[in-house]
Amino acid sequence: MKKALVILFPVIFSGSFISVNNHVLDVWINPVDNMKFAWVPPGRISVEEPVELEDSTVYKAKEIIFPNGFWLGQTEVTVKQFSKFVKKTGYVSDAEKAGDKFTWKNPGIKQSGNHPVIFVSYSDVEAYTEWAGVEIPYESEWIYACKAGTETKFYWGDEFDYDYVWCRENAVTGTKPVAKKPPNPYGLYDMVGNAWEYIRVCDSIVALRGGSWTRCNTAKAWWGPIYSDVIAGTVKPTLSKCKETIFQPYNRDDDRGFRCIKRGTVITDGYKFKSNDDDRKYDLCETITNFRIKP
To answer: Does residue 70 sit within a domain?
Structure first.
């Protein structure tokens, strides 16, 4: 009689399970701000990476490997969650310090507690993430999570679809409550549209990704089509230049918010994973096992 070989993989996980589009997903809830985080599994993605030449920039194909996986907020941080942060810490935002007419409390557009918080600077974002024990994703992490293993132009297909996006045509006057459009296959909502999301390109460079309610799907609009600004809205997305400051940390507006990432300690039963000095690039060691990262 032949014996079956059974291989057990370690699972390090503390959270709950939900069903999205008939798929069961892992969810971790941050006890500090009650944000729900979806598990983004290990994998790889093809991108175009800028290479600086003496008098020009060329883009070369590159495959980025994510051996560890990570947790990403299912939604953008909401007004309610940011309000809790302010109440607990007494924090005063940059817009309030500057005496601006519009702030996260008074954005000039109709918002409820379930809307993405806006009029926050990157400095405000850093203060929030430090309090909540989380971080802002790097550009490559954001792209990988947004594409969610799909090979189409957008994570829902090759054609732009208003059923998945809040933009100028259907949002009209401002942001909308989070998680009202269908999520991507990883259970992440509003990765395209509603509010721009701060991301890190390199340690000192900040950018925005994902488009917003102010963008339009028609190229004739002065603000340009939403898909021209959605870096994950292509089959092979393009990374930003590390030497180019795209947005200054003090910028704030009525269409800019943020989403958080949680990285944790990896325990892989003897195997260790390593990364390059450049946080956007990852090396794969000997084996990828079916594990979870403990938040």
So the answer is: yes
Asked if residue 199 belongs to a domain, the reply is yes
- 247 is a domain residue: yes
Sign of CA dihedral 229, 73, 130, 136: negative
Q: What are phi and psi of 106, to 5 degrees?
A: -130, 80
Report which DSSP code applies to 133: T
At 2 the pLDDT is: 41
Predicted pLDDT of residue 154: 86
Nearest to 132 by CA among 193, 84, 171, 70: 84
In the numeric block, which tokens belong to residue 276? 């390059």
| pLDDT (0 to 100) of residue 234 | 56
Q: Which of 265, 282, 14, 255 is nearest to 141 (CA)?
A: 282
Indicate the number of domains in the chain: 1
Reading the block at residue 79, the tokens are 């007004």
Query: Which domain does 168 fall in, by range?
Result: 16-262
Closest CA to 113 of 144, 137, 81: 81
DSSP string, 44-105: EEEEEEEEE-SS-EEEEEEEEEESS-EEEESSPPBHHHHHHHHHHH----HHHHTT-S--SS
What is d(CA 289, CA 267) in angstroms, rounded to the nearest whole number?
A: 10
54: CATH:
3.90.1580.10
Is 122 a member of any domain? yes
